[in-house]
Amino acid sequence: MAFARRFGALEFELAPISNVRPDGTLRPDDGSDDAVKVLKGNMGWHCDSTYMPVQAKGAVFTAHVVPATGGETGWADMRAAYDALAPDMRDRVEGLSAYHSLAYSQGKLGHAHAPGSAYSGYGMQVADPPLRPLVKTHPETGRKCLMVGRHAYRIPGMASDASEALLEDLVTQACQPPRTWQHRWTPGDAVIWDNRCLMHRALPWDMSEPRVMWHSRIAGDAKSEGVAG
Questions:
Q1: What is the spatial distance between Cα 197 and Cα 80, in angstroms, rounded to a whole number?
Q2: 143 falls in which pLDDT band (50, 70, 90)?
Q3: What angle do CA 53, 109, 204 make, to 5 degrees?
Q4: Which end of the chain has fewer CB atoms < 10 Å from its terminal CB, N or C?
Q5: Cα–Cα dist 221/198, whole Å
Q6: Share of the chain above pLDDT 70, in %
């Protein structure tokens, strides 16, 4: 938390990203545990808090217990992804926006928040999903970045199927080498990233093995990371 605060105020101080309950037992991987559904959702490419009124600026992630294989984290550079688009695709996406919703993305996995859930519900109960442009200008570098990922849905003015197809195609094009990097965790590692220009995802692992990570999220600036940013 202290390290994360060097980069700004925190959206939240600390949250577990873990398949281990507080009592030390493993959460079941049988579709019954909402915390596991969130872990599986996080295996899709995304930026943090695009579903909140103000998108996160960045994040610090620390590893405490890691599985023998799998469970890596991948990042994808959305600046390079925008630069790699064909000119006609750049022209097409420049004027488009999409709504962002955690309830939408988790709903695709059969996760609907309910009282008593194993998941806190953070982000699941946003009443008005923010509408964000598909192309974001980074507030410090001025570079254009794609703003897509698993939380994005329903582009106004497009049919639902066409919107979904375009958003999926953009993620597929964006998250390819050489624009991706994958980190194999060792207990004690800490990674910080700029959430305004990088997407990330967890890679699958055998959930009969524990994986315990902790996450501090750095708050965005409402002027640049708000819904009009």
A1: 9
A2: very high
A3: 100
A4: N
A5: 17
A6: 99
Average pLDDT across the chain, whole number: 96
Per-residue confidence at 228, pLDDT binned at 50, 70, 90? low
- 205 alpha carbon, distance to own chain's centre: 18
Query: Does this model's pTM top 0.90?
Result: yes
For the chain, give every domain's residue range. 2-225
Report the alpha-carbon distance of residue 81 to residue 146 in Å, rounded. Answer: 7
Query: Which burial class, exposed, middle or buried, applies to 31 when counting CB atoms under 10 A from its CB (0-12, 13-18, 19+)?
Result: exposed
- How far, in Å, CA of 218 to CA of 195, rounded? 9
- For residue 61, which phi and psi values (nearest 5 degrees)? -125, 130
Which of 26, 168, 174 has the alpha carbon at shortest distance from 90? 174
Confidence of residue 229 (pLDDT cuts 50, 70, 90): very low
Radius of gyration of the CA atoms of the chain, in A: 17
Quote the pLDDT of residue 118.
80
Measured between alpha carbons, how far is residue 20 from residues 38, 72, 82, 163, 209 in Å? 13, 17, 38, 37, 9
Token pair in block for residue 163: 């919107």
**DSSP states of 83-114 as a string?**
HHS-HHHHHHHHT-EEEE-HHHHHHTTT----
